[in-house]
């Protein structure tokens, strides 16, 4: 047996042994059988390379792999309290969502879980839209993949490109399934309002299909060219505002407004959440940094009002970096930040 025939045999075995839908397996085996008759043709190598890449993709997708949901309200509450301060209404909405999932599962109607409206977190930059989605995934015990929509201008980014093109590859939805290795992951569609004006209408058309359970049970990526059931996927979306989102898409979403944070709330978030995480990430011992309570006003708002916590995070990271350098250079074992010396530590 020559090497070309051996390589085709390897692909045939791979297709036969993989967990694939039977119809897709039949199509692939027919195509490989046709390819085996072209081993002496000049077009064999490009055709073989294309087929090999295709089989690599379809055999790695989670056609039947699912993640077991963790539908424990106390666990979900604990996770959200650990990662987020306040946001009571939003946390309650998530707990209600998980409660419905639990009841449906107990009645053996879990397939209907995914008929619920898709959550869409709407708010200004830095208000926690993306992180709350990650907390929901953690609370459910599901893997999560993020698809950024900022600057997206081509629906093929989501749906993939036909294998007729030499450099074709699957779209971001299929790539997300490959990353999560689960048929029921959480997929975060981040900033869906920030697509380009030129591609908006066509991208919104794909979103309608993705978010509609009457259509997404047979989502076809142009590269895979075979229906994939997305009805068990939990989609979560975010947006800065809903003005640029098509009405048909909004009809499938449940918008939840993310509140802006007051200065007092930011101080609590900085003290209880951001500073401990920043110190842990940088390797600073707990006792190496003390910040006076009256200093936090400067850390929270050095240059003016900011609805989110991005500026707060940058300022705390800047303080922590400066303290780390002081410790490494042996200038001190601990640092006390006061209203007199705070400007030495804040990023300029």
Automatic annotation (TrEMBL):
Gene3D superfamilies documented for this protein: 1.10.8.60, P-loop containing nucleotide triphosphate hydrolases
A Gene Ontology molecular function term of the record: ATP hydrolysis activity
BP terms from Gene Ontology: chaperone-mediated protein complex assembly; mitochondrion organization; protein quality control for misfolded or incompletely synthesized proteins
Domain AAA+ ATPase: 115-263
SMART domains, per the entry: AAA
Pfam families xref list: AAA, Lon_lid
InterPro entries: AAA+_ATPase (IPR003593), ATPase_AAA_core (IPR003959), Lon_lid (IPR054594), Lon_Prtase (IPR027065), P-loop_NTPase (IPR027417)
Protein name as it appears in the record: AAA+ ATPase domain-containing protein
Organism annotation: Candidatus Woesebacteria bacterium RIFOXYD1_FULL_43_18
